[in-house]
Amino acid sequence: MGDGDGVGVGEGVGDGVGEGVGLGVGDGVGDGVGVGSGARVMTMAPALTRTARRMRPANVSRPARDLKRFMGGPSYRLPSADRPLLDSPAMPGFSTRAIRAASRAPDAPQPPVNVPIYQTSTFEMADADELAELLAFERPGHSYSRYSNPTHAALEEALGELEGAEAALITASGMAAMHSVVLSLLASGDEIIVPRAVYGGMVSLTTSILERSGMRHRAVDTTDPAQIQAAINVRTRLIWLETISNPTTAVADIESVANLAHAHGVLVAVDNTFASPAIVNPLSTGADIVVHSLTKYIGGHSDLMGGAVLGAADRVAAARHVVINAGGNAAPFEAFLALRGLKTLALRMERHSANALAVADALQGAPGVARVLYPGLASHPQHALAMRTFRAGMAGGMLAIELEGGRAHGERFLDRLRVAVHATSLGSVETLVSHPASSSHRQLDDEELAAGGMSTGTMRISIGIEDAADLIEDLVGAARPVT
Ligand code: PLP
Question: I want to staple 287 with a disulfide (CB 3.0 to 4.6 A). Which of 48, 80, 282, 448 is the partner?
Answer without folding.
Answer: 282
